[in-house]
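Handoff note, outgoing to incoming analyst
You'll be picking up this chain. Sequence as last confirmed:
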Amino acid sequence: MLIRITLTLIIKRLDFSNCESAVHGNTVKYFTLQSSSLFGAEQLLFKCEKRICVIGAGAGGLAALKVISDSAYFKSGKWSVIAYETRKNVGGIWLPAPPVVDVYNAPITPLYDSLTTNLPHPIMAYTSYSFPPETSLFPPAHVVQTYLESYAAHFNLMSLIKFDTTVLDARWESTQWTVTLSDGRHFAYDHLIVANGHYHLPRIPEVPGLADWMKLGRASHSACGQDIAAEMCTVSSVVVHAVSVPGAVTNDAANLVRRGRPIELKANGQVVFDDGTTEDNIDHCILATGFHMHFPFLEGASMINKNIPPDSPPLPVGELFNSTYHVFPLAKHLFPLQTQYPISSIAFMGLIVRVAPFPLMEAQAHTIVRAFADPASLDPIAEAVDIITRADKIRRAGASTPLDIAKAWFRFDRDDQWNYRDELYQFAQGIGSETPLIKVTEWEKELYDLKVELKSGWEDLEKSENSREWLKDVGRNGVQDWVGLMYRVVDYARTRKNLLGRL
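Most recent structure output, in case you need it:
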């Protein structure tokens, strides 16, 4: 996206946070159960059958902690869990940060001050925890951050998280994962849950002249191009939205110019596009070009291969690949089908895009508990067939190379996310499972498809200062309040559009 204006841009839970044992070569696993409020300085030693390390305390990591700590395995002391979070609080990308770069020359979060959700929060929220009554239907980022903090507090998750602690290295050694932390300590775990997110390391395209623009501060990276373009149209004389996918732009602002892929950014402010057209006097370029999937802690001991996997079938033998667009091959989009370590010893959460992420990751967490408790529940042959079937589906949709397949792998079609969620909850049932059989509701499916109309109608209500009246007491009687509100907003948006069309 190119812009002709320079931008400035009261019962306390027992504390399991000390549930970790240093690696000394012994095969006995244990944890220390400690609670200063109930036991003073006493520490009780318990044998622990499974010790679980969660990497990251954003929305995915919190879902994993919540579901695991709700399980009978955890409550009985058979399992322990700890999450390591690099930053000082929960929230992941929703947690604000100063506009500085980290060791990867990347911003700590792509969050920007005016960001609002692109999904209505009743669809976006965890199934186990709603946003508060009268919350704006498309809340700003700081409300989502407060919601995640509230979720962590409500389910007593904070004591299970070590903040200001980065996992530098994780490697499988014989029968366990050895994890190295930023404070120099090393610990052993039976299972890893990777929930470090995938909105961190910017994907910078190779376009002639772009590197010079970035050095001069004339180009920067951000998140959703649609949202940024819409906002820039309110403050810029002209916004040029360059997209490579036909029909991807839905903004109809009068000062929006649509162009194809840029192929050169010149020093004089001219940008050349792939169809031969040019735009002059461009002041700033915002790159909404996505992010790399990035797992540096698995690269040191070659736990993951940083290349595009070969075409399949057959599936690659022995290795897990990170193409930076997808992780492959994963059973149930979670568990690595490879031979370096047990399939169920590690799970990758939240890699799927263009979905309602929080409830999907909650469903993934239930599936992870089942697989950790019963590794035999994962059938490698059946999972391999599912992976090959998905690859064939993506090819039929037009992907012709391994790179094309990688780019499309985690982009779910209209019904894929709903079927996937239902399948995860079905799998999580198992023998003796305490997981509720949650099925995606029809209103979720219908209203997700109407999200653009919903947001348009809601933004109009906010501009006219009528949204507060529409929100009065909504949510106090449960989720059906929100469902009714959303359908009313859709009707409002359609009526307004019809009226404007007659003018």
